[in-house]
Structures are given as structure tokens and as C-alpha cells.
Write a structure and sequence with these properties.
Layout: E1 2-7, E2 10-15, E3 18-22, E4 38-40, E5 42-44, E6 58-60, E7 69-76, E8 87-94, E9 99-102, H1 112-117, E10 123-127, H2 136-146, E11 150-154, H3 172-175, E12 181-183, E13 188-190, E14 200-203
Parallel strand pairs: 3-5, 4-6, 9-10, 10-11, 11-14, 12-14
Antiparallel strand pairs: 1-2, 1-13, 2-3, 7-8, 8-9
């Protein structure tokens, strides 16, 4: 499976020529990102906020043979059972070889039963920015408990590349408290089924960031 970070919480997952797009953001809804314009076999939206549910930016292709099975875990966008920001979905996506999870805008602790369902992940896309979601420390505690093979941070701010909301944290706040961190120069990652015992944090560059950086 190939995973491409488009930006914010939006990813493209590819297998055998088929694709899934997660959490497409509306034009202009997230600072520093170009619009999402994709063709895909399936679109998954973790919740109905504009920076996660822009289905109009995605053209669906109807064809048989989709290799993905999707399981949904119902959670919350905040720590008070959705009273602030509503519900959130975690998607577990299985292509028969790889099992990955997209955590959406997770803002609450998970139950033991939910944690059990999230065992044995090959990769996990996890928000780390805080304020609207779990923060860096909460994300670190979560992935250290789940131990997915690969962790891809998302939903954070970059000062250097000028993307993301001003109120959320940077990826450095997460990586500084994690071991085994690798930063890639691109937006794509090929994953394979793994028996890794601990999380390998892999920081990608968002494909749709506008070309603006600060030294």
C-alpha cells in the first residue's frame, strides 16, 4: 500500500490502482494548503467540518474490485463526549496485506474495547497538534500503547512551511518525546505488513502545501 499525505488530515491510500481519499479539506479552509482535487474509488470523512468533509473536491470512480475493507470506530472530537465539537470516526482500512488506521480529529481517550480493535496496525495516521484534537503528549501515549508499525503525524502546524492553524502545535512537540523518528523529503510512503514491536514515527511533507518557507 502506498500512502500520500496531501495535507492537514487528507491522505491518499493506493493499492493495485485503486484509491481511497480521507478527510478532504475545503478550498481555503486550512492556511497554507492548495485545494484538493482528486479522483478516487472511495472517500472517507471522519466528521462534518469543512476542513475534513469537502467531498466536492473529490470525483468518485465507480468500478468493481475495490481491495479495501473499512471498519469504523465511533469516537468524539473532544473530551466531553462531543458536546463541544461533535462525533469523530476512526477508520481502519485493510487491503488484505496491510492494516492501517486514520484517527480523524480524535479528541478523547479511547475505551479498552476500542484499543483492542486498534491492535496490530501496520500504520497509523494520528493528529498531534492539540487544541482541536489530542495533543502531542496524548498522541505519544496513544501510539506507545498501540505500537503500530509506522506512525504518520498529521493535523499540525509548520512554522517553516507556513501551513496549519496558528492555535495548534507543531510536529516537533510530538517528535521530541518520541524515539525512532524519521523525516522524509517527500509526501509518499510505501508500507508493507510488519511485525515491528514499536512505533516508527515517519514525518512526511504535505504534497499540497503552498510553496512558502521561512528560514
Amino acid at each position: 500500500m502506498k500512502i500520500t499525505w496531501i495535507g492537514h488530515s487528507c491522505f491518499k491510500l493506493e493499492k493495485d490502482g485503486y484509491t481511497i481519499i480521507t478527510d478532504p479539506y475545503a478550498d481555503g479552509s486550512v492556511p497554507g494548503y492548495a485545494p484538493v482535487r482528486e479522483k478516487t474509488d472511495m472517500v472517507l470523512c471522519s466528521h462534518e467540518h469543512a476542513d475534513h468533509n469537502f467531498r466536492d473536491g473529490v470525483e468518485l470512480i465507480e468500478r468493481p474490485g475495490l481491495p479495501f475493507h473499512v471498519e469504523v470506530i465511533e469516537t468524539y472530537h473532544d473530551e466531553v463526549c462531543g458536546k463541544k465539537r461533535g462525533p469523530n470516526k476512526i477508520f481502519i482500512i485493510d487491503d488484505g496485506e496491510n492494516r492501517v488506521a486514520h484517527f480523524g480529529d480524535l479528541g478523547c481517550e479511547l475505551t479498552p474495547e476500542q484499543m483492542e480493535r486498534l491492535q496490530n496496525l501496520d500504520a497509523a495516521m494520528v493528529p498531534v497538534g492539540g487544541y482541536f484534537t489530542i495533543d502531542a503528549r496524548q498522541a505519544a501515549d496513544l501510539v506507545c500503547s498501540l505500537k503500530p508499525g509506522i506512525v504518520i503525524p498529521m493535523h499540525y502546524r509548520s512554522v517553516k512551511y507556513s501551513f496549519g492553524y496558528d492555535v495548534i502545535g507543531t510536529v516537533d512537540e510530538f517528535t521530541e518525546i518520541m524515539d525512532n523518528v524519521k523525516t522524509l523529503s517527500g509526501s509518499e510512503l510505501e508500507i508493507a505488513s510488519t511485525n515491528a514491536s514499536g512505533p516508527q514515527v515517519t514525518v512526511l511533507k504535505p504534497r499540497n502545501r503552498t510553496i512558502c518557507s521561512r528560514t
